[in-house]
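Lesson 9: reading folded outputs for more than one chain in a single document. The general rule is that every protein is listed as its sequence immediately followed by its structure tokens, and records are never interleaved. Here is the first one.
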Amino acid sequence: MAYPDGFKYTKDHEWIDLTGDQGRVGITDYAQQQLGDVVYVELPEVGAKVKQGQSFGTIESVKAVSELYSPVTGEIVEVNAALKDKPEVVNANPHESWMVVIKLTNPGEASALLDAAQYQDLVK
């Protein structure tokens, strides 16, 4: 599996695709494979504040329920409402299935995240 180069990754298997002071967040292909078929995603409300490393929601699969961890500190400015009705889209393409958009309060935090090559090494 190739992990998109422009993304940053966490050791908890989330990705963030940064554009300016905002980033779309989702789970990695590795996380999706570990979970199996995703059947439900619980996401926060727009306006919710999140801290780097803090849980912002849960993802349920046929095998397990897992926490979703925020890669950065900030505010939820958008939620992918389509996942409520069709959580299975995460199974087909986890790197295009974003869950939330976070407006970063400290953009410097992102520099501590893994790049694609570092993440690839982590999940070997």
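And here is the second record, again sequence then tokens.
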Amino acid sequence: MMLKLSKTTTNAGYTTLQLEGSISGAWVDELRKLTESILAETRNLVIDCRGVSFSDHQGQQLMRELLARKVSLINCSPFLQSQLDAVQ
């Protein structure tokens, strides 16, 4: 499955990534590279998970790492949120 990444930046200095599809496989590495690039420029990163339909273990781990770095995750489905809250 694919992952579509859309990046927008506001005048307030916030960058939002809108995700659509599956956070899995090779897409986890692509998302990691993109978030590292953004976080090198700004600490104000918001990830909109409204369009996320699936996340594998590596994708969930990346999202937990981003949360630990104070990245905001918004619009997570109840299933995705439960996966992120689970202790692995």
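What the second record shows: The chain has one domain: 3-85.
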